[in-house]
């Protein structure tokens, strides 16, 4: 049976991304998006209804109540877990009436989230496919980092079917692990990526450039602005390959240093 599809409307490293990593370990296909009801609704319309949906009670665009009402128009609801930073009895009552499976107040242990999912085998969900008993076995540090980088690239709007997507993801991971890579992009970084994918440095460079151009043409402006604020101004133009990779890898290294990303050694 195919993996359960999980959409998480929370892109905070120690919340949504951590939950996604946990669910991937349990065998799910999990993606995170920023907590915006309109963004989540658009994702569902473009990529189909997930099996499990984890959303914030309060979101811009559409809150959880508004999003559930819109999703009900599209068909049978998936398993929906609504989370909030505080107790909200009236909101909890309304989302449960609209078909949510659970309302959870943060912070909570990941095991509590998995328990709620396992108890909510209703609607469209296929949580029976998840290895709920063995999810605690965590992925390796490299797998954790790959999940985080993959989510960032998805949020920025780079399509997964192009070669530049895979080259860029690997290049960012290399630069997070070794800062010297970005200081020698043509002599060290491109050749290392090329060797991994059995291609040439020039093709790696062109493919990454194409991926960045697609992001700027089709990506989410709010996400782009959060990462590359100065570069998306009309007077500055698109970032270079090295600027793009450096900005993301530097940001991830800072998060790791601060402890926002708990990557095991």
Give a written overview of the molecule:
This protein is elongated. It is built from eleven helices and five strands. The protein has helices spanning 13-25, 37-47, 64-74, 89-98, 110-119, 141-156, 163-177, 185-197, 201-218, 221-228, 241-258; strands at 5-8, 29-32, 52-56, 79-84, 102-105. It has two domains: 5-129, Response regulator (Rossmann fold); 141-258, Arc Repressor Mutant, subunit A, CATH 1.10.10. The model is unreliable at 122-143 (pLDDT under 50). The longest helix has 18 residues, at 201-218.
Strand percentage lies at 5-15%
Cα(first) to Cα(last) distance is 33 Å
User: Which outline best applies?
Assistant: elongated
Detail the poorly predicted runs. 122-143
CATH superfamily of the largest domain: Response regulator
CATH architecture of the largest domain: 3-Layer(aba) Sandwich
Order of helices and strands: EHEHEHEHEHHHHHHH
Mean pLDDT: 80
Number of strands: 5
CATH fold title of the largest domain: Rossmann fold
Question: Mind telling me the CATH class of the largest domain?
Answer: Alpha Beta
**Number of helices, counting only DSSP H or I runs of 4 residues or more:** 11
Please indicate the count of domains: 2
Descriptive labels:
elongated, alpha/beta, 2 domains, five-stranded parallel β-sheet, 11 helices, Arc Repressor Mutant, subunit A, 265 residues, Rossmann fold
């Amino acid at each position: 049976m195919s993996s359960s599809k999980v959409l998480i409307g929370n892109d905070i490293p120690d919340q949504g991304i951590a939950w996604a990593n946990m669910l991937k370990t349990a065998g799910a296909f999990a993606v995170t998006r920023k907590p915006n009801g309109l963004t989540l609704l658009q994702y569902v319309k473009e990529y189909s209804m997930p099996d499990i949906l984890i959303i914030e009670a309060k979101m811009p665009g559409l809150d959880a109540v508004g999003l559930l009402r819109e999703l009900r128009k599209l068909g049978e609801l998936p398993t929906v877990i609504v989370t909030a930073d505080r107790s909200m009895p009236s909101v909890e009552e309304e989302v449960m009436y609209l078909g949510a499976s659970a309302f959870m107040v943060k912070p909570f242990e990941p095991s509590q989230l998995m328990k709620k999912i396992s108890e909510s085998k209703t609607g469209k969900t296929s949580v029976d496919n998840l290895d709920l008993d063995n999810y605690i076995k965590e992925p390796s540090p490299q797998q954790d980092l790959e999940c985080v980088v993959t989510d960032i690239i998805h949020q920025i709007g780079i399509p997964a079917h192009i070669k530049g997507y895979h080259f860029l993801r690997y290049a960012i991971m290399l630069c997070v692990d070794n800062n010297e890579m970005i200081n020698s992009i043509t002599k060290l970084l491109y050749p290392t990526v090329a060797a991994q994918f059995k291609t040439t440095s020039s093709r790696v460079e062109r493919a990454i450039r194409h991926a960045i151009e697609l992001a700027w043409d089709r990506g989410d402006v709010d996400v782009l602005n959060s990462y590359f604020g100065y570069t998306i101004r009309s007077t500055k133009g698109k970032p270079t390959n090295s600027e793009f990779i450096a900005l993301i890898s530097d940001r991830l290294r800072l998060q790791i240093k601060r402890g926002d990303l708990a990557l095991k050694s």
